[in-house]
Amino acid sequence: MSLSLKKRFAAACALGAATVLGAAVPASAHVIVQPNSVPKNATDQTFAFRVPNEDDKNSTVKVEIDFPTDHPIPSVKVAPVPGWTDSIQTTKLATPIHTDDGDITDAVSQVVWTGGQITPGHFQDFTVDLGALPDGTDKVVFKALQTYSDGNVLRWIEEPQAGQPEPKNPAPVLKLTAATAGDSDAPAASAKADPALASTATAKASGSDSTARALGIAGIVVGVLGAVTGVVLGRRGRGTGADASA
């Protein structure tokens, strides 16, 4: 490849990479929650609010996640983030949540992180554990406020709508899917397998092993016989050649 072609190839690769990265940035440039989907009956789930820094010069210095009050979340635990201080705010519920352990009258209204920095070109995950997910809804819409060191505040509060283009400032949304059976159901089902079928399967496996072994031995025998035959024929050929030369 000539020097000119190499330069053109390198330029094309660089342009392609820049195009891919440029297309990828807008899709992940807002605050999101991960995972973004869990079953409705899930409990003690851990989630991370991923906060990217979109600014070229300023750092993110404050992150606020507002929790919904129409479908309240009773409790939350926050994982420590080095360099950041967290605080949990609660609110009194107009209608208490009834549980087997009694009524819950307060719910989480927001979690705020301050004191740290997310520098340009970086992101930070803020991890929380939600004790229980709300009933009567198929999604939880959080609202995120991201404050920069120059005082600018990005408000990720617009709820995405099905069939509509993504809004300019989408809010983090956690989807609640249909409740699923516990993982313990699968082992229980396999433990009830028919013993007769299990014995048949074992017998078939044993028969297959025996057949494979027999075929393997037969192959070895055929190989040995072939090698012996080759040696014998080789010797005869050399003997015939010697007689002819004499």
Descriptive account of the structure:
With 246 residues, the chain is an alpha+beta fold. It is built from three helices and twelve strands, in the order αββββββββββββαα. The strands form three sheets. Strands 6-7-4-10-11 form a five-stranded antiparallel beta sheet, with no helix packed on it. The protein has a four-stranded antiparallel beta sheet with strand order 1-3-8-5, with no helix packed on it. Strand 10 (143-148) and strand 11 form a beta hairpin. The longest helix is centred in the last third of the chain and has 51 residues, at 195-245. The model is unreliable at 9-27, 183-215, 224-233 and 240-246 (pLDDT under 50).
Report a brief summary of the structure.
By secondary structure, the chain is α+β, with helices and mostly antiparallel strands.
Which helices and strands appear, and what pairs or packs with what?
Blueprint lengths: L2 H25 L4 E3 L2 E3 L3 E10 L7 E7 L9 E3 L6 E15 L2 E17 L4 E10 L6 E3 L1 E6 L4 E4 L16 E5 L7 H7 L3 H51 L1
